[in-house]
Amino acid sequence: MVQERYAKAYYEVFIIALVITFAPSKLLAYLTPFICIGWFIFRANSGKTLYRTFIIVAFILAIIPLYYFIYSGFIVINVFIIILTYSSFIFIFVTPGQIFSPKYSYLKYIKVIKYTILIQSFFGIFQLFGLLITTGNFNVDGSTGDVIQGTINPFSFLTAYGGTFSNAMFAVNMVLLLTFFTPYMLTHRKGFFTFFIGLIVLFLASVMHVLIGVILGFAISLVIYRKKIVPKFKIYHLIFIVFLVVGIIVVAIFAPQNFNNISRYGQKLQNFDQPKTYITYQSFTDLPSEYNTMPFIGLGPGQFASRASLIGTGKYFGEFEKPKKIPFLKGKASPPFDKYLYKLWEKVVTNPAKYGHSAMTKPYYSILAIYTEFGLIVLMFIFFILFVFIYNNRISYINNTNRFQKYGLFSIAVMIIFLVFISFIENYLEVPQAIFPGLVAAKFIFFWCNNFQTTK
After folding, report:
1. What are the backbone angles phi and psi of residue 323, rounded to the nearest 5°?
2. How far apart are the first and last CA of the chain?
3. Which residues pair with 318 in a beta bridge?
4. Where are the domains of the chain?
5. Residue 318 in 3-state DSSP?
6. 3-state SS, residue 356
7. Would you say the pTM of this structure is higher than 0.85?
């Protein structure tokens, strides 16, 4: 049976995604979605998936001449890099929707998610205590939470753990896994220990913009998914309020410096001296003035504020002044990147005493990357598609009588709003190591909730 074959292959892909994503190799992580595409094609014998992959990649490569002739100094290799950085979404688009079956149901995925949360949580606790013991500092405030990186960097407390982005990737992964674990916990009344230990480690990791993002995602979803203006008070409302209050109290007591950083960064973002604010301003003023077609078609894939553009300079991996050499990468920057963004980036990453390692200070983020490289029309189209998807998902949520599946649909809304929020902070949409397993799980849950009526 085709669907059973697809379901088995997709389940195997999910496990592969988790294994590679939580492995220490960041370079290998960028290849994960294509590794999973290849595995799915092989195991499911899916010619359609191969065909769709070819069409998408061919389309992206086909637009190279357009930008190459419009913009002098266009970096062609960055287009190939951006195919890798955005490959998480390529996987979602090319794989079919027939990825569930009675044998490969949501409950089978939950077992994997459960043990992943537990393993990563215990590693996080091990890393925190390892740091506290080796340094003798039992203050969990400040940058101490950065040491919590799970198996992405197992012995982080013995290395220079600050500024590696592993802490943020760990936190985003935990948010997505906990989000999709919640429906099971609420309907089956099981897994409370797993959820709470994961939540505690997430708060201890102290990635504040990630915590704010998931809280906003939950709160906004509660508002837009309700049937009535004044809904009945339900158990998940109480659970959300309890988690919110407890989480705020925990952070405020044990990490007051990180808690106060929220308002401090908010104030800084209003200052044009801040790199993130300044590059945003330039992207809507100076950049369009110099490149008139930029607001309409962008500067081209991988040419300005994307992760691909950073990698293309040859200075992204390793230390900025002593970067790791990547095969076939000469290390070039496009003219707009070199003129507007390079100096800002260099100033931030080479002066941690002033700017720290926070994503809030970086002069790039996913929304800015999409706008500057693909144009405002593409950005608005993406927001429109997300609006339509959430609207239709809400209808499915309201009409679905299966409580298990209703919570599953709700969790997808939380994930989307969460990802949109953090896309204003960093280039998360181009980091498979942060978002890929969550996207794989989200696609499964969406099709399972809409097509497979079962609570068993």
Report:
1. -75, 160
2. 21
3. 323
4. 2-266+375-451
5. strand
6. coil
7. yes
In the numeric block, which tokens belong to residue 30? 């960028």
Contact 174, 152 (CB under 8 A): no
Please report, as a single letter, which amino acid is at residue 219. A
- Give the residue from 174, 142, 85 showing the smallest Cα distance to 357: 142
Collapse the DSSP code of 428 into the 3-class scheme (helix H, G, I; strand E, B; otherwise coil) and give the result: helix
Neighbouring residues of 241: CB distance < 8 A, sequence distance ≥ 6: none
Residue 215 has φ and ψ, to the nearest 5°, of -65, -45
CA atoms within 13 A on the CB side of 402: 17
d(CA 207, CA 453) in angstroms, rounded, equals: 37
Q: Where are the alpha helices (DSSP H) in 136-255?
A: 166-188, 192-205, 208-224, 235-254
Q: How far apart are CA 56 and CA 420, in angstroms?
A: 23
The one-digit pLDDT tens for each residue of the chain (456 residues) are 788 999 999 999 999 999 999 999 888 999 999 999 999 999 999 999 999 999 999 999 999 999 999 999 999 999 999 999 999 999 999 999 889 888 998 999 999 999 999 999 999 999 988 988 887 765 655 567 888 999 999 988 887 666 578 999 999 999 999 999 999 998 898 999 999 999 989 988 888 899 999 989 998 998 888 765 444 555 655 665 666 666 666 666 666 665 555 555 555 555 667 899 999 999 999 999 999 999 999 999 999 999 999 999 988 887 777 788 877 777 889 999 999 999 999 998 888 877 777 788 899 999 999 999 999 999 999 999 999 999 999 998 988 888 888 899 999 999 999 999 999 999 999 999 999 999 999 999 999 888 754 433
Please work out, in degrees rounded to the nearest 5, the angle formed at the alpha carbon of residue 28 by the alpha carbons of 22 and 33.
80
Question: Residue 182, CB half-sphere, CA atoms under 13 Å: how many?
Answer: 25
Residues pairing with 323 in the sheet: 318
Cβ pair 367, 425 in contact under 8 A: no
Q: Are 365 and 309 in contact (CB under 8 A)?
A: no
Dihedral sign (CA 19, 21, 25, 27):
positive
